[in-house]
Amino acid sequence: MSYEKVKQAKHLSIGLKQTLKAIEQNLAQEIIIAKDADKRLTSKVIQFGAEKNLIVTYVDSMKQLGKASGIEVGAAAVAILKD
Prior knowledge:
Blueprint: H1 2-8, E1 12-14, H2 16-24, E2 28-34, H3 39-51, E3 55-59, H4 62-68, E4 77-81
Parallel strand pairs: 2-3
Antiparallel strand pairs: 1-4, 2-4
């Protein structure tokens, strides 16, 4: 379900740093986090997203999230951006 959402999104920020930047700039509307990503790295994104009242969705695999985002490597976090 969430992988499809990522594939269909018009605009994405891919990766932890880019996702954090999108949240800071109020560009994100939803955050997708890979469950197999390092919790120490994703916790800041999750906490920051919650503070901004963003929907946080979890998916099983970094590899699948990266693939759904159109990149060849895994992604720990992806932000679906506002249109």
